[in-house]
Inverse folding.
C-alpha cells in the first residue's frame, strides 16, 4: 500500500539540515543558510536577495538577563523593514545559535550567504528534503487562456498600461491587457507539494505556535507579517511600532530588544534532538 502523505516534524527537518556533510565551504554555507532561514522563519530573498544580511548584523545582547543572539532582519514582504529575531545563545535552548553567530562573525563585512543564488538554494533544498511533503490548502487562482475571437467594447489606460474591455462568445465581459485572452478562475483542490524553503518557514511558524506557545501577536512580531493582510495592515495604529527603520544607532538596537522581549521568554525551552 502506498504511504499517505503526512506533515513532517521539526525534528525530522532539523536532523536533515544537521546531516549535511561539510565536504566543501559551499556545503557549510547551505547548512548555515537553512539553519538561519528556519530559526528566523525567513524568506529565501532574506539570504540571497536585496534583503540579505551582513555578518556584522548579528550581535550578542542581554534580554531579560539571558545572553541572546539578535538578528535584525530586513523583512522581504515589508519592503525591508526591520524585524527583531532573538535566539537564546545557550545550546540547551537552541543548539544552532552559537554556530550561526560564529558564521556571521567570519563574514563580518559581507553577506554570510553570498556566492549562491536563490535558485541554487531552492534546488539544494529540494534535494535535501526529498521525500518530505507539505500540505497546500484549497485556493483559487486566475489563469488566462487564448481565444480565437473577441469583441472589443472599450479601451483604457490604467497605470500607463493599455487595457481592453472585451466581450466573449458566451457574452461574458472582462478587462484584459491582451484582447485575445480570457481570464478564468480555477479552484485548486487541497493537495501536497514537495517540501521547500517556503515550507521551512511554515514549519517554524507551526513550531512557534504549538511548541513554544506563541500568540498571534508574538508570531507577527517575530515574522514581521500581519494576519490582517497587506491591504489593511497599516490601518492598525500599533503597526507603526511593529517595524524599526534601518539604522545603526544604539537607540535602534534598544528598540529591537524591547520588541523581542515581548516573546523571548517563551523561547527558553529546550529544543534538542538526539541522533
Amino acid at each position: 500500500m502506498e504511504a499517505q502523505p503526512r506533515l513532517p516534524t521539526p525534528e525530522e527537518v532539523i536532523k536533515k539540515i544537521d546531516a549535511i556533510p561539510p565536504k566543501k565551504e559551499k556545503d557549510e554555507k547551505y547548512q548555515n543558510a537553512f539553519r538561519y532561514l528556519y530559526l528566523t522563519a525567513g524568506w529565501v530573498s532574506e539570504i540571497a536577495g536585496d534583503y540579505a544580511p551582513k555578518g556584522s548584523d548579528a550581535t550578542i545582547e542581554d534580554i531579560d538577563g539571558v545572553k541572546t543572539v539578535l538578528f535584525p532582519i530586513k523583512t522581504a514582504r515589508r519592503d525591508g523593514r526591520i524585524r527583531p529575531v532573538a535566539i537564546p545563545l545557550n545550546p540547551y535552548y537552541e543548539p544552532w545559535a552559537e554556530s550561526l553567530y560564529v558564521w556571521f562573525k567570519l563574514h563580518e563585512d559581507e553577506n554570510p550567504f553570498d556566492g549562491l543564488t536563490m535558485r541554487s538554494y531552492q534546488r539544494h533544498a529540494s534535494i535535501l528534503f526529498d521525500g518530505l511533503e507539505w500540505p497546500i490548502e484549497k485556493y483559487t487562482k486566475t489563469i488566462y487562456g487564448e481565444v480565437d475571437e473577441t469583441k472589443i467594447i472599450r479601451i483604457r489606460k490604467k497605470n500607463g498600461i493599455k487595457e481592453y474591455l472585451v466581450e466573449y462568445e458566451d457574452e461574458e465581459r472582462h478587462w484584459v491587457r491582451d484582447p485575445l485572452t480570457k481570464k478564468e478562475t480555477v479552484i485548486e483542490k487541497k493537495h501536497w507539494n514537495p517540501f521547500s524553503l517556503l515550507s521551512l518557514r511554515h514549519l517554524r511558524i507551526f513550531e512557534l505556535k504549538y511548541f513554544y506557545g506563541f500568540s498571534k501577536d508574538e508570531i507577527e512580531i517575530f515574522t514581521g507579517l500581519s494576519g490582517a493582510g497587506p491591504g489593511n495592515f497599516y490601518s492598525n495604529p500599533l503597526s507603526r511600532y511593529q517595524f524599526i527603520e534601518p539604522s545603526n544607532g544604539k537607540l535602534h538596537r534598544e528598540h529591537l530588544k524591547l520588541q523581542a522581549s515581548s516573546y523571548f521568554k517563551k523561547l527558553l525551552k529546550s529544543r534538542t534532538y538526539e541522533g
The longest helix spans residues 25-40. Strands lie at 59-63, 66-75, 81-88, 133-136, 139-146, 151-158, 161-167, 173-176, 181-188, 191-194. The mean pLDDT is 83.
